[in-house]
Design a protein that fits this description.
The complex is a heterotrimer of chains A (about 350), B (about 350) and C (about 325).
Chain A (H helix, E strand, L loop, with lengths): L4 E12 L2 E13 L4 E5 L6 H8 L8 E10 L2 E2 L5 H7 L4 E4 L3 H4 L6 H13 L3 H14 L5 H4 L9 H13 L5 E5 L7 H18 L2 E6 L2 H7 L2 E6 L2 E7 H6 L4 H8 L40 H5 L5 E4 L12 E3 L12
Parallel strand pairs in A: 3-8, 3-9, 6-7, 7-8
Antiparallel strand pairs in A: 1-2, 1-4, 4-5, 9-10, 10-12, 11-12
Chain B lengths: L17 E16 L4 E17 L3 E5 L6 H8 L7 E6 L2 E2 L5 H7 L3 E4 L13 H12 L5 H14 L16 H13 L5 E5 L7 H18 L2 E6 L2 H7 L2 E6 L2 E7 H7 L3 H9 L5 H6 L40 E4 L2 E3 L6
Parallel strand pairs in B: 3-8, 3-9, 6-7, 7-8
Antiparallel strand pairs in B: 1-2, 1-4, 4-5, 9-10, 10-12, 11-12
Helix pairs in contact in B: 3-4, 3-5, 4-5
Chain C lengths: L21 H6 L12 H11 L1 H18 L1 H4 L31 H36 L3 H16 L2 H12 L3 H28 L2 H8 L4 H37 L11 H10 L6 H28 L4 H5 L4
Helix pairs in contact in C: 2-12, 3-5, 3-12, 5-6, 5-8, 5-10, 5-12, 6-8, 7-8, 8-10, 9-10, 10-11, 10-12, 11-12
Classes of the chains: A alpha/beta (about 350), B alpha/beta (about 350), C mainly alpha (about 325).
């Protein structure tokens, strides 16, 4: 079965006055129809830049998609013209962002913003669009949709605005929903509401989801597969259970151990990942995580490890099984080189 | 200069004595409308909050945005003038102190701020920033003595003292937060309000700062009021936890009791909403999903503040406001259903 | 409450990259690395130099200052030396800018005139800047609304009058002369400094580092100069340049009307006034002082524009790009 989305060796750079920032350095992953992929990373990992590159939402210059292919349903998104990609955005691929206050037009009523997408991509007329908008707003759990439809974004709370974003994203029945840290700025109880909403909608429509976050807890509850990004590289790629039970990359190990809940007893100190993320303009040779790694060997400083399979799927014949991949020279169980 | 890591760590003994006593603290903000700026409504940011903080303990104050926890912290320190209520520190009533005496008290009660990018004056060097309280309270000190203390402070928080003449923008967020901590500790205070000190930091740096705060508490015998919305971090660092909702305290308990046996429906929903980094547990657990949004603090509901979203509200909840009652030793709850 | 949004350029404030620092990184905590960067004033200066209009302004102002400082060395003649044999001479080799109705060399008078213009400008702006900034800062920082209101209404009243008219009115009360002109122009410009200072303080007073200073017990009279003033200085610096332009113009105007500099002192405005009478036959008498005024005012205005952009953090891209 062909993948819904096949990203191959995506490389994105930013040309700034201080130098060339290598934001995304050759990442590859696949996503099936209806699958949920979680992308985990901290700021500077390249997670947001990578999806913005897919939809060509980065201004070029200063951004530059240096290399790579992103095949969506047989077509390469990166090779599309502006016109072609505009037909895909908001239509077959929807994207929602972290701050709905800046992604929604503050001077346009929310009904009109959703209606616009419907008229543009689905060819509806105004009254049909309005009808459908009310349906959508109800669907995402906005109470009193008939009144809300004529309100402006600032009149709604953060959680409501994010629901409007989701309604907007869903309006044209996308095959893929990309969510870039949509709940990071929301309270935890509202986050729980939004996650439950997206889960429900995903089950209902069968759309695929890419969910980007730094919060491992959210990933645990939502994703089927996970990629962990660091400094523009994918350092680990696995099914969600595998990732949490059996992390194979020191960075993933570090992230998991630094979570307070992981040490339920009277641990004296939280495990930390020492050091700070590297400068993307001047990436050191070798593995970008080496300076902070507890398992570092000499090879790590010289050569950047490629992403390789560390464990094959248990039942290769069964559909949907994912191999567990990691980019590391060292076996984290033994501490020896692979 | 003694290396901070070698300083003896005493065992923390939480005192029986309350270092800080807050009673019926209220902070209302007026909303002025109309051309004459008449006060039409009030935002009841903090609406009758009472609690104690014992010597050498860490009291976590949690809640979501708009619940008034930061305002509580600011009002306790008198950075905002309370609308009513009392705040006693070590027996001294802070709300009635005049300007000069209040400033004198500030040597003992300090604050660590949320935004390390905004809480340091960008035009001052690290040395100037950290030594500022010395200029105010120890004017007789020589420049050399001041420099020595600054260097000592920087070492204490794990920064290289050689960076004493650098500017804040040359440091990362985590390092800046350490500078802020060094600044707060210069005069050897006993009580520190930590107002969301890790919220603006990257996840991998948060752990470093939290470890530092814990270590300092043991070394220096500090008492913390730790304000945060991050429930997992609060659990790790606090001894007791107070939960706030819409300007009021809904539950206060020691941490194990709260996390294992929360009684208030809001606390339960809050704890349930925190994602757990364990896929199997996440899939299998039953989450309490609250309906609706938080009401506006300018217009809180009558009766219990939580009645608009509470899954188990009864008639009484819409009429009568529940008082914060001690339902078992050390465990307080404000709910009609818990009696 | 959010982590910083991912943005490539913010990462440059993380660790340094030279190999020699690797050892420190491998062994120590995150506290060892810093970013190299230049101070605030240095960066502003560099950015000003890149600004096309600001550059021109800077050059003109520098020329003006040289003219004023070195007038005695540069002038071919004594500016007040009367020579009736050579009246109304057009520009010649001996008198590059011609002579006036008293046979005085115009070039020398222009050079000495620069002294007067700059002196009046600096002192007037000095008065306006110090008094205005002080009032504005107090007004912006105080929590007593009545104080703020009183000061600002006072400023509004002054502001309501057209500047030059107000200066003339003040001169009418004080009497003629350069010294009074400086005071008058200074007074007229106090409100604008007060407004700008107040606005700047209002925008800075809610910054978290100000709150931190209060929490540390720092008294208000230390907070204002230490925390508020340096961070509020940018618009004030721009205003200094722009008001110097105005001061020069105002001095010229007052002298033109006979109120400011008194004869025989070579104020440009006076020269313009005198040249007006003889415009038909010797237009150069008015032309050169007019040009001098024009270029000076232009110079300070350009410099002000350049400073405004150089100090504006948002102009970073335009003025700091290496590949332009």
């Amino acid at each position: 079965m062909a993948h819904l989305l096949d990203v191959e060796n995506l490389q994105t750079e930013f040309h700034t006055s201080e130098g060339v920032v290598k934001a995304v350095n050759g990442i590859s992953y696949t996503l099936e129809e209806g699958g949920i992929l979680g992308i985990v990373g901290e700021s500077g990992s390249g997670k947001s830049v990578s999806v913005l590159s897919l939809l060509k939402l980065l201004p070029q210059p200063p951004a530059l998609i240096k290399d790579g292919a992103a095949t969506f349903d047989g077509r390469d998104l990166l090779a599309m013209t502006d016109k072609e990609i505009r037909a895909v955005r908001g239509n077959e691929i929807a994207i929602i962002f972290q701050d709905p206050m800046t992604s929604l037009n503050p001077i346009m009523k929310i009904g009109k913003q959703i209606g616009e997408a419907l008229e543009l991509h689905m060819g509806m007329n105004e009254s049909d669009a309005r009808q459908r908008t009310i349906e959508l707003l109800n669907h995402v759990g906005i109470p009193m949709a008939e009144q809300r439809i004529d309100q402006y974004p600032h009149q709604l709370s953060g959680g409501m605005r994010q629901r409007v974003m989701i309604a907007l994203g869903l309006s044209c029945n996308p095959r893929l929903l990309i969510a870039d840290e949509p709940t990071t700025a929301l309270d935890v109880t509202i986050q729980a509401q939004i996650i439950a909403l997206v889960r429900g909608l995903q089950e209902e429509t069968g759309m695929a989801v890419i969910w980007i976050t730094h919060d491992l807890g959210v990933i645990a509850g939502l994703a089927d597969q996970v990629i962990v990004m660091y400094s523009g590289y994918v350092v680990e790629y696995a099914a969600v259970d595998d990732l949490f039970e059996n992390p194979r990359h020191p960075y993933t190990l570090g992230l998991l151990s630094s979570l307070p809940e992981m040490g339920d007893d009277e641990t004296e100190e939280l495990q930390t990942i020492r050091g700070t993320p590297p400068d993307l303009i001047n990436l050191p040779p070798g593995c970008p995580f080496a300076p902070r790694c507890d398992y570092v060997i000499e090879r790590c400083l010289a050569e950047n490890p490629p992403l390789t399979t560390v464990q094959n799927p248990a039942d290769p014949g069964v559909e949907g099984q994912t191999a567990h991949l990691a980019a590391c020279w060292v076996n984290v169980d033994t501490g020896q080189a692979r | 200069m003694p290396d901070s890591k070698q300083m003896p760590e005493r065992d923390r003994t939480i005192g029986k004595k309350a270092l800080l006593e807050v009673r019926e603290l209220r902070k209302y903000f007026p909303i002025r409308k109309g051309i004459f700026g008449r006060e039409t409504e009030q935002v009841k940011a903090v609406d009758g909050v009472s609690f104690d903080v014992f010597e050498q303990e860490t009291l976590g104050l949690v809640g979501e945005s708009g619940c008034g926890k930061s305002t509580t912290g600011n009002t306790i320190l008198q950075l905002l003038t309370p609308t009513s209520g009392t705040v006693r520190y070590d027996g001294v009533e802070l709300t009635t102190l005049d300007g000069k005496k209040l400033r004198q008290m500030r040597q003992h009660i300090q604050m660590i701020f949320q935004n390390p990018y905004a809480s340091l004056n960008p035009r001052l060097t690290v040395s100037q920033i950290v030594s500022e309280p010395l200029n105010t309270f120890r004017p007789q000190m020589s420049k050399r003595e001041r420099q020595e203390i600054v260097q000592e402070m920087l070492q204490l928080v794990g920064l290289n003292p050689a960076f004493i003449n650098r500017y804040p923008h040359e440091f990362s967020g985590g390092q800046r937060q350490r500078i802020g901590i060094a600044r707060a500790l210069t005069l050897d205070p006993a009580f520190i309000v930590c107002d969301e000190p890790i919220a603006a930091l990257d996840v991998s740096i948060q752990a470093q700062v939290v470890n530092l705060l814990r270590r300092l508490q043991k070394q220096l015998g500090l008492t913390y009021l730790f304000i945060s919305h991050d429930l997992s971090m609060v659990r790790f660092i606090s001894d007791r936890i107070a939960v706030m909702y819409l300007g009021k305290l809904v539950e206060v308990a020691d941490k194990d009791t709260l996390y294992n046996n929360a009684l208030h429906p809001y606390s339960q929903a809050l704890l349930s909403a925190v994602p757990v980094a364990n896929p199997k547990r996440e899939r299998n657990r039953q989450q309490i999903i609250l309906q609706g949004d938080v009401p506006s603090p300018a217009n809180p509901p009558s009766g219990c503040n939580f009645n608009t979203r509470c899954p188990v509200a009864i008639d009484r909840c819409f009429v009568e406001e529940p008082a914060l009652r001690e339902v078992e030793t050390g465990h307080w709850c404000a709910c009609h259903l818990v009696d | 409450m959010n982590t910083k949004p991912p943005s490539p350029t913010t990462l440059s404030d993380a660790s340094a990259s030279e190999a020699s620092k690797f050892e420190g990184i491998l062994n120590g905590s995150d506290a060892q690395e810093l970013v190299e960067s230049q101070g605030f004033w240095r960066t502003t200066w560099r950015r000003l130099l890149r600004h096309p209009v600001g550059r021109i302004g800077l050059v003109i102002v520098v020329i003006l200052v040289i003219m004023a400082l070195f007038a005695p060395l540069l002038s071919p003649y004594d500016p007040n030396a009367i020579d009736f044999t050579n009246r109304f001479s057009p520009p010649t080799f001996a008198h590059p800018m011609g002579t006036d109705d008293f046979g005085r060399d115009t070039l020398s008078r222009i050079l000495y005139g620069a002294r007067i213009s700059l002196m009046v400008g600096v002192i007037a702006v000095g008065i306006a800047g110090s008094v205005g900034t002080f009032l504005g800062m107090v007004s912006g920082y105080t929590s007593r609304r009545w104080l703020d209101e009183t000061i600002m209404r006072g400023m509004d009243i002054l502001f309501a009058f057209p500047a030059i008219l107000l200066a003339i009115a003040i001169m009418a009360a004080l009497g003629k002369g350069v010294a009074n002109a400086m005071v008058a122009i200074g007074l007229v410009y106090i409100p604008i400094f007060a407004r700008i200072a107040r606005g700047a303080v209002l925008s800075v007073r809610n910054e978290e580092y100000v709150k931190a200073a209060r929490a540390l017990g720092t008294p208000s009279y230390v907070i204002l100069p230490r925390h508020l003033l340096p961070n509020a200085m940018a618009p004030l610096i721009v205003e200094v340049s722009l008001s110097l332009a105005f001061a020069i113009l105002a001095e010229a105007a007052l002298s033109f009307f006979g109120l400011g500099t008194q004869p025989p002192d070579p104020s440009w405005g006076r020269m313009l006034s005198e040249g007006r009478a003889y415009f038909q036959q010797s237009f150069w008498m008015a032309l050169f002082p007019g040009l001098a005024i024009m270029f000076s005012v232009m110079g300070f205005n350009f410099l002000g524009d350049g400073l405004r952009d150089a100090l504006d953090p948002k102009m970073k891209q335009v003025l700091e790009a290496k590949n332009r």
